[in-house]
## 1
Amino acid sequence: MSTNLLSALAAADRAVVGASEKDPLLQRDKLTLYRYRPIARPARAAPLLIVYALVNRPYMLDLQPDRSLIRGLLGAGLDVYLIDWGYPDGADRFTTLEDYLEDYLAGCVDAVLRSASAPALNLLGVCQGGTFSVCYSAMHPELVRNLITMVTPIDFHTPADLLSKWLRDIDLDAWIGAGNVSGETLNQVFLSLMPFRLTQQKYVQLLLCPPDTRDLETFVRMERWIFDSPDLAGAALREFVGWFYQENRLLRGTLQIGGRNVDLKSLRQPVLNIYGARDHLVPPASSAALEHLIGSSDYTGRELDLGHIGMYVSRRSQQQVPPLIAGWLTCKPRR
Amino acid sequence: MHEDWLQHWRTLAAAWDPYGASRFAGASALGGAPPAGASEPYAALATGFAAAVRSAIEGVSEESAETRASAIDRFVEFLRAQFSDLSAFSALGPQRAQQQRWQRMTAASLQAQQAQAHLARLWSDTLRAAADAFAQHCIDAAQTETAPKLLYAAWVDSAEEAYARMAHSAAFCSAQTSLLNAQNRLRRELQSLFEPWAKDLDLPTRSELNSVHRAIRAMRAEIVRKPSKPPAAKARKGGGTARRAPKRRPP
């Protein structure tokens, strides 16, 4: 490795993540709900709450000014809120999906509605956060005006879903037991989905074609994000893997959370479902399955030629995704 | 005299058989009779031990020092062989739980080794398939792609395609699941191995901490269920606008 590249990498390591100014609106246990400061004239749309996955950190959505889904949404005049689930530790090992949805997410929805003095909001769920958003919207349809899902798994048994195949017969008692699962473990699993590309090629490319300073900073930010993986609360992960990956309850209509049925037919809000044709984590067929499960007659599906991560940070996604979401939301009536 | 002694051992062995069966660890847990053959290792142990003792006694009664030493060596070797594989024996006595744990760990370790060997074979097949595909690519594109970067990209494409085929196969999924399940079981057993040590040293154990966490969750749920302020105070502050009380349940 050349000295220049080494020093450039060292310099890039000081690059900070996060591009948009935000203020905490609610803090509970490890969770923080943020409200982003507006940067454009307000659009005529209900407040937008972004629900990110429990895996990895939500700053991916606002990595840097030119790679920021959130900045794109703010630029369209949307009132944006984001849930940061924080870093669960051993004290959170018994936190269940019911806690995440009916306590934490419900609390955030409540806080956003109070803050915006609105009767209902728009929900944008990303990846696992999209699955949560679908469940929440089905359970509380009166509080969600429009639902947007991005790279969201719905059918967990599609043929291209490698992760699902690997998790199908895992002994959850032995794996999770009563403890949390470390972020490092999950990282290893994700890397082993495409080991040659993810553990070798991208670093070799870095050596063969050292990028300019700006791209190097983006690379370092991405690296930081990829390996900034919180541990996952054991009970919730156990339920998520068991109910969704192993039993595919959401698709089968047998999912219950906190004793309540999650009936997707009661999801009658307008839905915008965005997924990537080249997504190796959530195959497009897994996301597209939503269309035929919900009760809504206002469904828009958009398959973009992007991968799972590229969906929020690639250059192309910046041109496509925020305008798609903002355009779709602002054409919906604000009751 | 030797015969008397041997007879004594045979009697003991015969008595041990039903005793061992009645005390078999699985019997009490299942509440029924032990599995067929559960006592066989003990009967074999007693019979083998008696034969080894007889041989040793006969040897040490010889005049030759060499013969005596050899007899003792054989007896020691017999004992070593007897204790080389505890996994064959039903767990009995005060160390029953520890023996069961070691037996489970041995089984899990063996399963992990087998699964790992299976995965290594599958990986080897994958790399061979990747190399074949890459070689074919090089032949096809010999005139157009000679830059190291392009060749390396072609290799990665070949390798990922071969890997994806293998990773999706039932054989790989099964071997990987088997490996992970065995490793996780091993980890669980190790954890339970350390718990008594922590207890002996009066250090908090994971089980105790789990109990504390469960108690805290239950208390929080109880607090949430009870109104935090009297209704009058709430009204004065203009409160009561909550859409609905946050829901928490004890584990």
Note: The two ends of chain B are 68 Å apart (CA to CA).
## 2
Amino acid sequence: MKRRHNLPVKLLVACSLTLAFAAAAGAAEADAANPTQDPMAFARGARAWADNCVRCHNNRDPRELRDDQWRAVMVHMRLRAGLTGQDTRDILKFLQESNGNTAMTTALPVVSPAASAAPDAVAAATPETLYNQTCVACHGANGKGALPGVPDLTSDKGPLARMSDEDLIRSTMDGMQTPGSAMAMPAKGGNPALSDEDAARLVRYLRERFRGE
Amino acid sequence: MRTIYASPLALALGIVLGTTIPSSAVAASPDAESGTTSNTDAQSATESPEITELRAQIAELNRRLEQLAQQTTAARDSARVAGEKADQVAQISADGYNAFANTRSTYHLAGYGFVDFVAPQNGDATFSAASFNPIFHAQYDEKIFFEGELEVEVLEGGETEVNLEYATIGWLFSDYAALVAGRFLSPLGYFRQNLHPAWINRFASAPVGFDHDGAAPSADLGVQIRGGWTTAAIGTFNYAAYVANGPELEAEEDVLEGVISDGTARNEDGNLVWGGRIGWLPVPTLEIGLSFADGRTSVTEVEGEEIAGEPDRDYRFYGGDFAWRPLPALELRGEFARQSAGSNAFSLAPDSAVWRAWYAQAAYRVAGTPWELVGRYGDFESVNEMMSTRQWGAGIDYWLTSSTVIKAAYEFNDPDLAESEIKDRFLLQIAHGF
């Protein structure tokens, strides 16, 4: 009475072909997409982190885990969320450089091979570039906040209206926890290359861009 | 070292002394001019009391200077030793860090836990559940990944039950695909594979029909290929395609009652089930998914007793899901799932059966606060009418951290049968993900 269907056999053949194709594609891309010296990986990672984690849950604070722990977690998330390998590496770079282990990270090429490439490029960036590469992940292009709990930079009750330049610069450099936000802003916005001068220029730029000051 | 410090200071003091001592006194004391201390007694006899006192002061200063030099040397030695120890500690710390980080293998323990409190209408309020779900990750290079989750929970009688939620070995052979083998959460639909953990689910309970024994499969044992890719023109895609043992059926007397879809390690009907899901994100804030599965299944359990030899019958699943965040603080999502078993005249339970469920949910995070408001409507139609119900739910969440939440909710249930045990109830839950 048991009737055998040949659909699974067809599917297995299809999967085998897919496997072979994808393996070939993977081998080819391994040469083409080496993120080791990619100065934009951090910015892409910040964007991908903001876009993808909230598909299911709140964004986790990068400081919750060490570099090696994020390494395992990101593979788990790649499989669970259907991320590409490139997205996974970019988000991992963002998390590892935002969790306070930067000095260690840069010394560990296996864990974070691209850690040394971005800082120089970022340090030379304009405030607009700095914002669009890093801050935009959480604060959004319009400054109103891309994640729940992130303060509205355009609001009369927002930090730009309430805080002095000195306090804003200090908060940018030291990090801060906004009441009600699921996570704290990491020190230097997660960008280890950010200097006091960069933060000062950034604050002036934010006031002009979002408050018209 | 002592000489280095003492000699210049003594010389300086000598110069100062030379400029301080009256010239008449110096002239009367050739030894003092030369700086020697020979014939002290004779000098004492000829020197004035002032010069004698100065000599005593010089001697005392020399003694103190020597002490100071000794203390300085000791302090420098201590500083050097402390520096060496600090270097050693830093090296040990770095070695320890590298032992975790700079290796080909990485291990990590994640997971979640939760506690439930339920107060049903016309029933006894009860702390109804406590669960610990550890998830173990083991990674080798960037290509091999094992993960397994246990569900450890307390039963009504106080016993502890341990279940294997999933255990898979993944081979990430491409940036766009990974081969995953083992017992995995069913890739059909979205809630069961991604939203069911208590710290992720915004509501204090699963939607009707999306918990165990509902319309959405829980897990399966087989192999799948899953991954994603991005296009510049039309957005991002993710997918999963699988072949697995498939579900089994349970019957009550001569009627099909439920689908056993927890990932059995047998294939009674002799046919594999295949299927998958594809998700499309035209923009990052919107995801639309479609799922489908097809195969054969058979009855393996009648009134709680396992049986064998039942004839096989068609099995099919299809579903759709969406998630949309029109505002950063507002999340809308919904899902539809339908699974069916065909008829077979030679079976103990010959008739076909359908299990169908859908839900829609809105969650709004109140700006600047840890509060979140949640509303949900769901409908579950089961061949077992005692399980069929429509449900409204309203809840409020308080987020202690990004992965720790206290949830309060009330469910308004409208079961198909008045004698159904599904009643309105108040729920409290605290959940933490780690």
Note: Chain A touches chain B through 67 residues (CB under 8 Å).
